[in-house]
């Protein structure tokens, strides 16, 4: 699928990936990893994702 | 009362609280470690605190994460970190010297001490009879400044090891067995303590493998006794004088009891995409692989590489396979070269990388989309390898090497060869030059922090005012994540040591006018944010509190907070309150001006605060959940100010 440059996810810059403070990668929670956010789309994660005390996302 | 090792470590470092599981305790921290991804902010926090010199017995800054230098940002960070370690009296481990955990174990770890690190695998040093814990950057900055570390008193989970590891089964399979039994949240609020006759067979570095992945169970820490094996290890490192015996008292008990009979174990593997998704290797044997990856902080030992080298020696890896060797410390890499193990690996077709975190955190060696990658690394959550649609299995070096030869997931017992015996070098290399010791105090004082163009000091933060008159600049819904407050992506994270710059990204996902409006409100008394349930869920990113604070956020009023973000708000002096009546959320609008009067006194006297809405005939109540210690932090305007005050008192 061609990525529409106008709707590129700002959080991950279209890469679908974010990193925590320790530089560990995880799937972008804003676009759910597809790199695209359409106008009006809810940017909150579909389900809450949890982390532990040591900065690790448990997904 | 007879004590176990964990209780002894806690008792000898207890500064406040009772040793009752679940109660908050304050612990004295003897040593710290920081890595470069988190370390730049820690150093900036130390600067903002006005710290003269580290108050710990030993603190080390490792450069092991951002070691690829594709533009000037990472090397500028390295220069800054080096100057900061010299200024504040820390050890500096240069890029290429290796991953913090094994290097710390070799050079600085001491039985009987506490270690706090801004890296979740700091627990690995529990192998040395230490209480070693991972924490947020500000917690570690506090510890370096001599402040206690506050944590919930954990339950001690005693694991008795009996029997002997069969051939082809190694330390990694022990921790995979525990993950198979208890999954990734099984260790939360617990310290795992190993004991029993099975320990004899586990070298100090084998114990490191097991302690490291205690983080995958969510445990507060993992503790091994300091016995003859630790003495042998320290002697080998020329540090025998650092050894003390630390074992459980006769008759000591544990809050939770469990046993692992090592003789019953077989090669195990964690399937995609969770370290808790563990099955015997034989159940997935035959699945084709694209990559086999050996090393990282989860299998950093000499034997972990040497055994792989012996398995592939004189053979060729299967066609189409990428066989990646990620050395974990330069000291061990030198020995692996000297003993010709690296030659065996290279001749078999391996690709050798520099000593550091590398592919373990997704910095290099990302696998092809959807292809199976076998790794000895600690985590296989989606995307951790650097590939969005990755398919990563976690296994032992034996399983990874056997599979590299066949091209499919292979139970190493089916290779049809004798289990190689690996001999450790009689006199291992000791490499101290890449871990620079801190200069003496008089010299340290003259060191200037070297700040490249992308490094900015943290500005001063004011104390909490008695009257807040703040507009609601943003009203958001439920489940706002830290990624929406401040994302951690390739576009944003390069500015992690530049608060003015990174703050430009704050809330841009939700409302890209927030930054400009916040900057305008900042010098007029700041602003408030209103939110729904589970505000601040997700990553524990400190910047998600620090950046809004920089932009003048004074109060967050929500239906409820995600716990770790709540803690970060407190740490950085943003007042976190919740609605007493949730329906008041609906009555508030963006632009409403809220008035909190006598807020300083009110915070100290009671949990409920009264808020008036200016020019509207409406007021409502909010409540806070701050402890006495946290109220003090809030009044002073955040943790940095608390420590700064104390440093000034000491220096006066
Ligand atoms: Zn995204």
Automatic annotation (TrEMBL), chain A:
Organism of this sequence: Pueribacillus theae
Alphabetical list of SUPFAM superfamilies matching this protein: DnaJ/Hsp40 cysteine-rich domain
Stretches the record annotates as Disordered: 40-59
InterPro entries named among the record's database cross-references: HSP_DnaJ_Cys-rich_dom_sf (IPR036410)
Gene3D superfamilies assigned to the protein according to its UniProt record, in alphabetical order: 6.20.20.10
Protein name in UniProt: Uncharacterized protein
From TrEMBL, chain B:
Positions of the UniProt region annotated as Disordered: 369-390
InterPro entries: Acnase/IPM_dHydase_lsu_aba_1/3, Acoase/IPM_deHydtase_lsu_aba, Aconitase/3IPM_dehydase_swvl, Aconitase/IPM_isomerase, Aconitase_4Fe-4S_dom, Aconitase_put, AconitaseA/IPMdHydase_ssu_swvl
Residue ranges of every copy of the Aconitase A/isopropylmalate dehydratase small subunit swivel domain listed in the record: 515-580
Bias-annotated ranges (Polar residues): 370-379
Residue stretches making up the Aconitase/3-isopropylmalate dehydratase large subunit alpha/beta/alpha domain: 8-407
GO BP terms: tricarboxylic acid cycle
Classification via SUPFAM superfamilies: Aconitase iron-sulfur domain, LeuD/IlvD-like
Catalysis performed (reactions): citrate = D-threo-isocitrate
One GO CC annotation: cytosol
EC number: 4.2.1.3
Molecular function terms, GO-annotated: 4 iron, 4 sulfur cluster binding; aconitate hydratase activity; metal ion binding
Cited Pfam families: Aconitase (PF00330), Aconitase_C (PF00694)
Keywords: Iron, Iron-sulfur, Metal-binding
Subunit structure: Monomer.
NCBIfam families: acon_putative (TIGR01342), PRK07229.1 (NF005558)
The protein's name: aconitate hydratase
């Amino acid at each position: 699928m061609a990525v529409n440059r106008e709707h590129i996810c700002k959080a991950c810059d279209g890469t679908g990936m974010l990193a925590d403070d320790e530089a560990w990668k995880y799937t972008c929670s804003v676009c759910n990893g597809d790199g695209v956010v359409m106008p009006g789309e809810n940017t909150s994660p579909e389900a809450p994702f949890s982390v532990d005390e040591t900065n690790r996302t448990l997904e | 009362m007879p004590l176990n090792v964990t209780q002894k470590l806690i008792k000898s470092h207890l500064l406040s609280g009772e040793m009752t599981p679940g109660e908050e305790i304050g612990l004295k921290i003897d040593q710290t470690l920081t890595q470069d991804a988190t370390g730049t902010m820690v150093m900036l926090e130390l600067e903002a605190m006005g710290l003269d010199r580290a108050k710990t017995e030993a603190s080390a800054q490792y450069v092991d994460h951002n070691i690829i230098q594709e533009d000037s940002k990472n090397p500028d960070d390295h220069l800054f970190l080096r100057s900061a370690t010299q200024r504040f009296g820390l050890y500096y481990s240069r890029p290429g010297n290796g991953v913090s955990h094994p290097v710390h174990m070799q050079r600085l770890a001491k039985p009987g001490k506490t270690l706090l690190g801004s890296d979740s695998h700091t627990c690995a040093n529990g192998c040395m009879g230490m209480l070693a814990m991972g924490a947020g950057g500000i917690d570690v900055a506090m510890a370096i400044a001599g402040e206690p570390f506050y944590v919930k008193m954990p339950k001690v989970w005693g694991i008795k090891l009996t029997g002997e590891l069969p051939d082809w089964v190694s330390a990694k399979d022990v921790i995979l067995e525990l993950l198979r039994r208890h999954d990734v949240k099984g260790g939360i609020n617990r310290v795992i303590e190993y004991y029993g006759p099975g320990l004899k067979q586990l070298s100090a570095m084998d114990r490191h493998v097991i302690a490291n992945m205690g983080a995958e169970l969510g445990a507060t820490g993992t503790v091994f006794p300091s016995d003859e094996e630790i003495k042998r290890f320290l002697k080998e490192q020329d540090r025998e004088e650092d050894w003390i015996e630390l074992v459980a008292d006769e008759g000591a008990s544990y809050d939770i009891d469990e046993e692992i009979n090592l003789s019953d174990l077989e090669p195990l593997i964690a399937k995609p995409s969770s370290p808790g998704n563990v099955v015997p290797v034989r159940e997935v044997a035959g699945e084709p692989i694209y990559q086999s990856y050996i090393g990282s902080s989860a299998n950093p030992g000499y034997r972990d590489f040497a055994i792989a080298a012996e398995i592939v020696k004189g053979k060729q890896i299967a066609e189409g396979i990428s066989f990646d060797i990620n050395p974990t410390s330069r000291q061990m890499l030198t020995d692996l070269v000297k003993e010709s193990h690296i030659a065996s690996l290279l001749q078999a077709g391996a690709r050798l990388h520099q000593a550091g975190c590398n592919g373990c955190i997704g910095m290099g060696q990302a696998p092809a989309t959807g292809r199976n990658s076998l790794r000895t690394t600690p985590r296989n959550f989606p995307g951790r390898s650097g590939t969005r649609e990755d398919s990563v299995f976690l296994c032992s070096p034996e399983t990874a090497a056997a599979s590299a030869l066949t091209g499919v997931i292979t139970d190493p017992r089916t290779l049809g060869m004798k289990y190689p015996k690996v001999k450790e070098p009689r006199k291992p290399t000791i490499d101290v030059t890449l871990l620079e010791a801190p200069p003496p105090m008089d010299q340290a004082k003259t060191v200037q922090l070297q700040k490249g163009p992308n490094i900015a000091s943290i500005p001063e933060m004011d104390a909490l005012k008695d009257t807040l008159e703040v507009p609601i600049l943003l009203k958001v819904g439920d489940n706002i994540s830290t990624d929406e407050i401040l994302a951690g992506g390739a576009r944003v994270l390069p500015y992690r040591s530049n608060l003015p710059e990174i703050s430009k990204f704050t809330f841009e996902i939700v409302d890209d006018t927030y930054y400009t409006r916040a900057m305008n409100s900042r010098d007029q008394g700041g602003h408030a944010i209103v939110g729904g349930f589970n505000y601040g869920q997700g990553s524990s990113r400190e910047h998600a509190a620090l950046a809004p604070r920089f932009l003048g956020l004074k109060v967050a009023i929500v239906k409820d907070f995600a716990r770790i973000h709540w803690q970060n708000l407190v740490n950085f002096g943003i007042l976190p309150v919740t609605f007493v009546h949730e329906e008041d959320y609906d009555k508030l609008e963006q632009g409403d001006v809220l008035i909190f009067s006598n807020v300083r006194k009110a915070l100290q006297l009671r949990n409920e605060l009264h808020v008036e809405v200016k020019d509207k005939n409406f007021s409502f109540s909010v409540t806070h959940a701050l402890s006495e210690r946290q109220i003090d932090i809030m009044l002073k305007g955040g943790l940095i100010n608390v420590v700064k005050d104390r440093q000034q008192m000491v220096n006066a």
